[in-house]
Specification:
The complex is a heterodimer of chains A (111) and B (112). Helix content of chain A is 0%, strand content 51%. In chain A, strands 2, 4, 5, 6, 9, 10 and 11 form a seven-stranded mixed sheet that branches. In chain A, strands 1-3-8-7 form a four-stranded antiparallel sheet, with no helix packed on it. The radius of gyration of chain A is 13 Å and the shape is globular. Chain A has 111 residues and is mainly β. Chain A is built from no helices and eleven strands. Chain A has strands spanning 5-7, 10-13, 19-24, 31-37, 44-50, 53-57, 64-68, 74-78, 87-94, 101-102, 106-110. In chain A, a hairpin with a 6-residue loop joins strand 4 and strand 5. Chain B has 112 residues and is an all-beta fold. Chain B has no helices and eleven strands. In chain B, strand 6 and strand 7 (59-64) form a beta hairpin. In chain B, the strands form two sheets. In chain B, strands 2, 4, 5, 9, 10 and 11 form a six-stranded mixed sheet that branches. A five-stranded antiparallel sheet of chain B has the order 1-3-8-7-6, with no helix packed on it. The chains are: A mainly beta (111), B mainly beta (112). Chain A binds chain B through residues 31, 33, 35, 37, 41-45, 48, 50, 55-58, 88, 90, 92, 94, 96-105, 107, and chain B through 4, 30-31, 33, 35, 40-43, 45, 48, 86, 88, 94-105.
């Protein structure tokens, strides 16, 4: 079975632009969560979606938004990019209550 | 919110040595996971262990939920064990049951 897949793996954007990151969960998993990891720190929770509803939101500005589709895949959108948004963005899938499994991440560089 | 502290922050070993990594957390949890982050950034699941003891080869983990700590043991370390080890927990009383709070990690370097 395929694991959690994220796309793209790397991208470079200019300040002020908008970006969309994508995540496909493990088959059968209905929960998708997004995390931001800046260099030298642990991942920070951004959003969780379960059965297409937002179930949790971390301490991130409204420039960050997400959604989950009927097939349980998810997109994370970030508007008006800042240099400080440069980070590794990680997606995790799970059943919601127990073990989470992470994708390989998308490395975003804002210049 | 829940606080997670990992120790030590850095650990340098010779190949073949044993090590213990610790994770302290500030509130009751219903999920605790240990991860190894490889150089490419992927978080590899080591253990899902909200309580009790588990073993997988040279690695084992123990969580004492009542005392709010977990330990990860690495025996006979190998150079491939190098990387960052994270402990992550989900608060039992939280409204977002899927939200993991991560510690700052332990950077392990194993020399040949």
């Amino acid at each position: 079975d395929a694991g959690v897949t994220q796309s793209p793996t790397h991208l470079i954007k200019t300040r002020g632009q908008q970006v969309t990151l994508r995540c496909s969960p493990i088959s059968g998993h209905k929960s998708v969560s997004w995390y931001q990891q800046v260099l030298g720190q642990g991942p920070q929770f951004i959003f969780q979606y379960y059965e297409k509803e937002e179930r949790g939101r971390g301490n991130f500005p409204d420039r960050f938004s997400a959604r989950q589709f009927p097939n349980y895949s998810s997109e994370l959108n970030v508007n008006a990019l800042l240099l400080g948004d440069s980070a590794l963005y990680l997606c995790a899938s799970g059943t919601g209550w127990t073990e989470a499994f992470f994708g390989q991440g998308t490395r975003l560089t804002v210049v | 919110g829940i606080q997670v502290e990992q120790s030590p922050p850095d650990l340098i070993l010779q190949e073949g040595a044993n090590s213990t990594l610790r994770c302290n957390f500030s509130d009751s949890v219903n999920n605790l996971q240990w991860f190894h982050q490889n150089p490419w950034g992927q978080l590899i699941n080591l253990f899902y262990i909200p309580s009790g003891t588990k073993q997988n080869g040279r690695l084992s983990a123990t969580t004492v939920a009542t005392e709010r700590y977990s330990l990860l043991y690495i025996s006979s370390s190998q150079t491939t064990d190098s990387g960052v080890y994270f402990c992550a927990v989900a608060n039992a009383g939280g409204t977002s049951y899927g939200k993991l709070t991560f510690g700052q990690g332990t950077i392990l370097t194993v020399h040949p």
